[in-house]
Amino acid sequence: MSEITKAALDEAVRAHIADEHDDSLAASWVLIAERVPLDGDDGHSHVVDVVPDGQSAVTTMGLAYFLAQRRSVGSITDD
After folding, report:
1. Which of 6, 23, 26, 45 would bridge with 17, disulfide CB 3.0–4.6 Å?
2. DSSP states along 58-72
3. Is the pTM of this model over 0.85?
4. CA distance readout (Å), 16 to 9, 10, 22, 38
5. Which pLDDT tens digit goes with each residue over 2-33?
């Protein structure tokens, strides 16, 4: 991912959090996406994660674990 794209993604995530949650700051974040190859690749899906530069692996794994736990009990909402 280019530095320009990373910077734009970071700015967008932080702006979204501030807009949706009364000017709150996003202290850390992780974007997790599933890539499904359509061009005769290996036939498997792949998880792709993106984090802001400088964020520790411990923070990133903690956020991913937190999300996985919430998904497993069905408590994620759109609020």
Report:
1. 26
2. HHHHHHHHHHHHHHH
3. no
4. 10, 10, 10, 31
5. 889 989 999 999 999 999 888 888 888 888 88
